[in-house]
Design goal:
Blueprint (H helix, E strand, L loop, with lengths): L14 H14 L4 H20 L5 E3 L6 E3 L3
Antiparallel strand pairs: 1-2
Helix pairs in contact: 1-2
Amino acid sequence: MIDPHIGPVTVKISGTSALLLARLAEALGTDDGGAVVMRALGLLDLAMAAKRDGRRLGFVDPATGHMSEVAF
């Protein structure tokens, strides 16, 4: 079981990932890269849980009804 009280950690990421993180943080109106990573990890966790349970996670375009499944 993972300890929920683990403190801050340092993670090495590539320059490309760092630029994407900065771009997403700006689009979300924050300078907290950790908050961006937490949102992304939450979405990945949902997708993995859905796959494990035989379900799918996707995004639906309300204009067309077209669904794009989250793949990884």
